[in-house]
Write a structure and sequence with these properties.
Enolase-like, domain 1, globular, single chain, FAD/NAD(P)-binding domain, alpha/beta, 3 domains, seven-stranded antiparallel beta sheet, 12 helices, seven-stranded mixed beta sheet
Length: about 500
Amino acid sequence: MDKYDLCVIGAGPSGYAAAMRAIDFKKKVLLVEKKQLGGAGIHHGALSSKTWWELSRDAKSMRRNGQTLDTNSNLKFNFLHIKSEVRKAVNERMTMLEHHMHNVNLTLGEDFLTYKSGVAKVVSQNQVQITTVDGEETVEADHVILATGSRPRVLPNIPIDEKVILTSDGIDKLEEFPKSIVILGAGVIGCEFATIFSNFGHTKVYLIDKGDRILPFEDEDIVRVVEKNFEEKNVVIHRNSKLLNMRVEDNQVVYTLEYTDGYQEVFRVEKALVSVGRVPNYENLFDEDLGIEINKRGIVDEHTQTSVSNIYAVGDVTADISLVNVGELEGRYAVEQMFGGSSSKSPLVYDNISAIMFFSPEVAGVGLNETAAQQKNINYKVASLDYSCISRAVAMRNTQGFIKILVTDDEEMKILGMRVIGEHASSAIEAVALLISMDKGIRELAELIHPHPSIIEGIQECVRMLLNNSVFKAGVLRDRMHCKAYRDGQYVSLESGSES
């Protein structure tokens, strides 16, 4: 029986990161993947969908700037050519991962990594059964990491066939832009695909939202901008609606909605996309007698360690946050806990996790937003600055958006979180994420020299507002700048300059 220091089940972002971190400790690692190297994060998730988004954003820009650039604003885009470009991006990443994995032993001069394509199951605390095309074998491992990811959630009353009614896994099966599509689910993934299809301008998009606004976890001022952009592109948002049924009829989708006032309405579209979250892949992953604790959200872990001491779980398969960057962090952290010694790492914290939401315009955030802070009954100060006050946004001829920073309501003004909506939003959050992890306040940002012109100059102006020494005065530009405190359930203006 072959023996390893570590067996990693799942070669997506978190599993791959864990395996490579274990090699740093000179450990013998077995990496097992049942489908495709790179996991959903490459093939049906972050990389593929964001390539779609980047191309759609270019298409939208070409359509919007047609008159300015003296080009045809009524452009037509070839779906198959675009899909081919997305596949090129996926293949580029795949090729790099494969090249790296197959040559890491050669470079290091020792056989640290073994890769197997097959289905793995943990049958005892130190044994893993692997089924491949060549048969079945059992290996022994001192430690095991479960990194099997997640898959789109399906609903039992909706006939998903990945042809007419799709999940995100079925997007690459399309052969042309649908003339119309309904998207069930107004969370991040649903809104991202609504953005992608509406940006190209070939598809009429309908978005089903059971509440009175999309993205219920986000702040209202962020949502208003995203909804405005959807409506300008003729996206129909079915607010306060309940899906009664959805079926395929004559190769089209027929769905019935009931609104909160009891009114029912029937719609017919060409395609449907079901985007109601993801579920962890832990079925048949381990023997039930092992006693690994699970709940509705996934495998329960304490700083990546499951209820079995030598078995760890990372990424989407756990009950934690489902993001690629979080999964990679957890994979590396689990290995460091195993092999790095008791003083190797402080406990995992998620307070400074950065996230990007690929809408129109893009949204980036780190830490708490106002919605979360108010739910936690936290008093805070907040400053926001409109993009029209930022030179780079003016130069880009796109001033839609704003920057917003939340800090503690005290003299220290430690950073609680930040949200940015607008062009280059993702470039604006990393410094703030670092300060949150360091438990620092805002003064470190106040006099930092930012590159000019850049979007991140707006962060500095927000900070100066909170310190009452901004270049532009909120009391003058009331429609573009705001500085206030949220205390005991209500807002108090700080724009008079009476507080710093």
